[in-house]
Write a structure and sequence with these properties.
By secondary structure, the chain is α/β, with parallel strands linked by helices. It is 26% helix and 22% strand. Helix 6 crosses helix 7 and helix 9 packs parallel to helix 10. It catalyses: Hydrolysis of terminal, non-reducing alpha-D-galactose residues in alpha-D-galactosides, including galactose oligosaccharides, galactomannans and galactolipids.
Length: 471
């Protein structure tokens, strides 16, 4: 079992990992998890990718693609706690749970996490099973009025009931005993179940103290989550979603252009607003939505997705099956700029959002939106020096359906600051050399002194993602 040894806080940078949902839905098995773990360790660990998450229904032996099963015969222990299906996870047989699998993942230098639903299994309530280390039973703590609207497995828990805390304490104690590092807990935020979030946090703190290991908490889903909750979320979690599920559609990315600017100024070491998974690579093998496919996002859209998430310092959780994804996808994920910007930037913000028209006086000639993000390069929270000391990062995003040629509208001083507008600066394309099948970006600095501008051509739904360094 690995233990926490670092002096840096949990989730000191936005986590980077793989989640089984986009590829396998509710049906992923041990062999598939290990295949992705081995691939990550060999090809992506050096670029910052270090976490694997087994998504929903790993305890349902009847799990299937495209949906959930009503009255599923969930596998539980004598206290109503979920156990992995031993047919899909053979190493879990005999009550070993995810302990053997976590050990294998840790030996690769990686972390292992699982998805959980809020509340207590209906089967445990129907059988009125005892809650471990408690005087209460499942029926005592179940709240039949607060159940998930889209998954039938669980009842909610009675807010403030001491037995509810006992339930979460016992559940998370078992996860810690197995050696898990990461918990994605669903049905927590839409609607916002503050008491259950706090109870989960308290249970994690107890398990960490007992077992001597860190466990990061990620909350889902994120529809309608207000920034007014940010202090509470920071007190209780390391990640929280800011949208519902995102898939390989441009409109899903476009909507995050509106959400991420609200949350980016609130990002804080150890606590991250999450713009959701990256539907990149080979997805849909047995997923909830769509058929077996490579991500339908275009090359420019994939780059925009990654640049936007990084500039907003969102966690990066890729959904494609790594061993069967294209070399171009893996090249994108292996780009060191992803970790460089998520771990080593500050003052991240949207600076420009302007609608563009072919004829400025004609509202019917709308072409798209020009969106600019800027950030300051910074040393990492773990002490790693910045790759661009005293530098800047910028992402220039174009949402239109045709290429966009930058004029004189993006001044260099708007990114580097008025106090530095006369100084010499060099520009680096952050996708340069990435073998994803796209040509290097046409991005450059033109002009003299304070009149310098960023020039270039942005492809449809594309981005110019750059670093600027003082000479």
């Amino acid at each position: 079992m690995s233990t926490a040894t670092s002096n840096t806080p949990k989730a000191w940078r936005p986590p980077m990992g793989w989640n089984s949902w986009d590829s396998y839905g509710t049906t992923v098995n041990e062999e598939e998890v290990l295949a992705n773990a081995r691939f990550m360790a060999e090809h992506l660990l050096a670029a910052g990718w270090d976490t694997l998450v087994i998504d929903i229904d790993w305890y349902d032996p009847t799990a299937r693609a495209h949906g959930y099963n009503t009255d599923a015969p969930l596998i539980l222990d004598e206290f109503g706690r979920q156990l992995p299906d031993p047919q899909r996870f053979p190493s879990a047989a005999g009550g070993k749970g995810f302990g053997p699998l976590a050990e294998k993942v840790h030996q690769l230098g990686l972390k292992l996490g699982v998805h959980m639903m809020r509340g207590i299994p209906r089967i445990a309530v129907d059988k009125d099973l005892p809650v471990k280390n408690s005087t209460f039973t499942a029926k005592d703590v179940a709240d039949l009025d607060h159940v998930c609207k889209w998954n039938p497995d669980n009842y909610g828990l009675k807010p403030g009931h001491p037995g509810s805390q006992d339930w979460y304490d016992a559940q998370i104690d078992q996860f810690a005993e197995w050696g898990l590092d990461f918990l994605k807990v669903d049905d927590m935020q839409t609607p916002f179940h503050a008491e259950e979030i706090a109870a989960y946090h308290r249970a994690i703190a107890k398990a960490e103290a007992k077992w001597g290991r860190d466990i990061s908490l990620s909350l889902s889903p994120g529809g309608w989550v207000s920034t007014t909750y940010v202090d509470f979320l920071r007190d209780n979690a390391q990640m929280w979603r800011i949208s519902d599920d995102l898939w390989d559609r441009w409109e899903d990315i476009y909507q995050q252009l509106r959400r991420l600017p609200r949350w980016a100024p609130l990002q804080q070491t150890g606590h991250w607003a999450d713009a959701d998974m990256l539907p990149l690579g080979h997805i849909g093998l047995r997923a909830e939505r769509g058929d077996d496919r490579d991500s339908r996002l275009t090359g420019p859209e994939r780059r925009t997705l990654l640049a936007l998430w990084c500039m907003g310092r969102s966690p990066l959780m890729v959904g494609g099956d790594l061993p069967t994804s294209t070399p171009e996808t893996i090249a994108l994920l292996a780009n060191p700029a992803l970790q460089e910007v998520t771990a080593g930037s500050t003052n991240n913000r949207e600076t420009v959002y302007e609608r563009q028209f072919a004829e400025w006086w004609n509202p019917d000639s709308y072409r798209g939106d020009l969106v600019v993000w800027a950030a300051d390069a910074a040393d990492w929270a773990d002490g790693t020096p910045s790759a661009h000391p005293n530098g800047r990062y910028a992402a220039l995003i174009w949402t239109g359906e045709d290429d966009y040629e930058l004029g004189d509208n993006i001044e260099l001083k708007s990114i580097v600051g008025l106090e530095h507008m006369e100084e010499p600066w060099t520009l680096t394309d952050l996708f340069a050399g990435v073998a994803d099948g796209m040509a290097d970006a046409d991005a450059r600095i033109e002009g003299q002194g304070s009149d310098r501008v960023i020039k270039g051509t942005i492809p449809a739904h594309g981005v110019l993602w750059i670093a600027l360094d003082p000479q």
